[in-house]
Design brief:
The chain has one domain (about 10-115). The relative contact order is 0.17. The longest helix has about 35 residues, at about 35-65. The chain has helices spanning about 35-65, 95-105, 105-110; strands at about 10-20, 20-30, 80-85, 115. The chain has about 120 residues and is α+β, with helices and mostly antiparallel strands. It contains three helices and four strands, in the order ββαβααβ. The strands form two sheets. It has a two-stranded antiparallel ribbon with strand order 1-2. Helices cover about 40% and strands about 25% of the residues.
Length: about 120
């Protein structure tokens, strides 16, 4: 998950029904203060670096598991959109970006989600 840019970040994220069965997360609330923007700029870089490291280690771990089959297997990586069908009721009133990250990592949210390959 790539965090939003510093200029586009808001203090509250709110789920909004985009169309029946599809809920989008919209940034609402006041803009961040200058001090919060400076903190957010550093935090955003850390989040991106952490996501890259986790993806890299996950990919290497699972590729090494498949190494004995390398002569007759192909590797395909799909990029796309992760669509959550269910999320905790307490998030309906809105929450922070960190809370959204926690929700995405919940096994129940992952099990009920769809992945649209793009």
């Amino acid at each position: 998950m790539t965090p939003p840019t510093v200029s586009g970040m808001r203090s509250v994220l709110l789920p909004v029904e985009y169309r029946p069965g599809l809920v989008m997360v919209q940034m609402v609330g006041p803009e961040l203060t200058r001090k919060e923007k400076e903190k957010r700029k550093i935090l955003r870089k850390e989040i991106i670096d952490d996501n890259y490291t986790r993806f890299h280690s996950h990919l290497i771990r699972h590729i090494l598991d498949l190494a004995p089959h390398r002569g007759w297997m192909r590797l395909r990586v799909h990029f796309g959109h992760h669509t959550m069908a269910k999320y905790p009721k307490d998030f309906r009133e809105g929450g922070t970006f960190q809370r959204l990250g926690e929700i995405v990592n919940l096994p129940r949210a992952q099990a009920s989600a769809n992945f649209d390959k793009k």
